[in-house]
Amino acid sequence: MTAVTALSPAAPAPERERTKRRLLDLVKRHGPQTAQDLAARLEISIPAARRHLCDLQEQGLVEARVEKPGGRGRPQHVFALTDRGEAAFPKTYSLLCVDVLRHVQSLYGEGAVLRVLDARNAEIAARLAPELCGSALPERLELLAQRLTEMGFDARLERDPVEPGVWFLVQHNCPNLTVARQYQDLCAAELDLYGALLGVPVVRESRIACGQSTCRYRIGPGSA
C-alpha cells in the first residue's frame, strides 16, 4: 500500500493577513529587513516569510533591494517599504496642512490662504499645460483625469447623454478632504485650475467636502 503524505492545511486567510500586517509593521519600525530576519522576528519559517513578502511585493507594498549590512560585508537582499507601503500607515499631513494655513491666515490676513493656493495651482498648471496643449477637449479631459487619479482623486469621465459636447469630470475621492472642509478656498482654487487648463466653462455640481458622494464638474458649452 502506498503511503499518503498528509499536507499541512494552509493558514486561514485572516491569519495570513495579520501576519502580513505584522511583517509590514516590522519593516516600518526597523527599516529594511532580510527574509531571515523577518522570519526570526515573526517566529515563522523562512519560506513562509518569503511567501508573505512575495504577496506584499505583488501588492506594491514592499520592494527588494540589494544592500551591504552596515555598509560593508557581503551584499544581501533586503525588503523595504514602497511609497504605497508607507501610505498604509497613519499620517497627519492633512492636520499639519490645516495648521499651516491657519497660521498663514492669522499672520497675513483673510486673502493669504487663497494667494497660497493660487500659487500652488499656478505651479500645477505650468506642469500640466504642456501635456494638454494642442489636443481636442476629449483628449485633454482623458489626460487630466489620469493625472488627477495619480494625485489620489480617483477621477472618471462621463458624457452628457443628451447634450453633445458636454462632459462630466467625476472625482470619487478627495485626498485633501480635511483641509477642504475647513478652507473652501481650496475647492474654489481647484475649480479655477480646471477651467484654466481646459479652456472651456467648468461648473461644479457636487462636492465631497459638503457631504456629497463625489465632486462632479460639468464641462463644456453652456456650463457657464
TrEMBL record:
InterPro entries: ArsR-like_HTH (IPR011991), Carb_Metab_HTH_regulators (IPR050313), HTH_ArsR_DNA-bd_dom (IPR001845), WH-like_DNA-bd_sf (IPR036388), WH_DNA-bd_sf (IPR036390). Residues 17-94 form the HTH arsR-type domain. This is Helix-turn-helix transcriptional regulator. The lineage of its organism: Bacteria, Thermotogati, Deinococcota, Deinococci, Deinococcales.
